[in-house]
From TrEMBL:
The lineage of its organism: Eukaryota, Metazoa, Ecdysozoa, Arthropoda, Hexapoda. Residues 105-121 have a biased composition (Low complexity). This is 26S proteasome non-ATPase regulatory subunit 9. SMART domains: PDZ. InterPro entries: Nas2_N, PDZ, PDZ_sf, PSMD9. SUPFAM superfamilies: PDZ domain-like. Belongs to the proteasome subunit p27 family. PANTHER family: 26S PROTEASOME NON-ATPASE REGULATORY SUBUNIT 9.
Amino acid sequence: MVGINMNGPARDRVMKLIEDKDKIESEIREHTAVLETNNVGMDDPLVDSEGFPRNDIDVYKVRHARHRIICLQNDHKSLMKLIEKGLAEVHKDLLGSNGEGRAVNGASSSNGHGNGTSSGDTAAAAAAAVEDDKVFAVVGFVHDGSPADIAGLQEHDEILQFGSVNHQNFQDMTQINNIVAHSVGQRVNIKVKRGNNVYNLIVLPRPWQQPGLLGCHIQRKS
């Protein structure tokens, strides 16, 4: 794969934002582990039937973890918006510098998706054109504050890859459901098409305030 030559202030800003995002995701995982250790979620009661603090959990740690998760989720959501804006600026600069409307990376990747990122990129990828026939599923509604929302998924995103599933091996939505069910607390790579742009996102399936592990609806592309 031929990666994008993203040099300059815009690229540096995006890489710093991605670094900050990774740190936030790491801290969210740490606090989520505290909740999992105590077998509670974000909304489980911390008092018993008589109104006394539960003696089967560390109430102080759980409260602190919940508070930090909420704060970090808000920070993460804001960072994802900045990253998306920054990537658009980098893409615009690249198109202006190469003097042509050709693919940003100058060559197609080995899987046919000219996603314009080097193999070392760990978060949202720079934009590039992808053929519609590579899309196999579409994101419906996304709940605010959900794991999907935190990852940066948006309504109408077209899914090119979800974990190990892509358009070549996709058969039905059971494959997606199985990946989510077996990846609680683990990073799942998702590649989505949004307009003419392609983004590599990372979602962390986990219990949250509402039912489900993602907090979004994904359906087969019609």
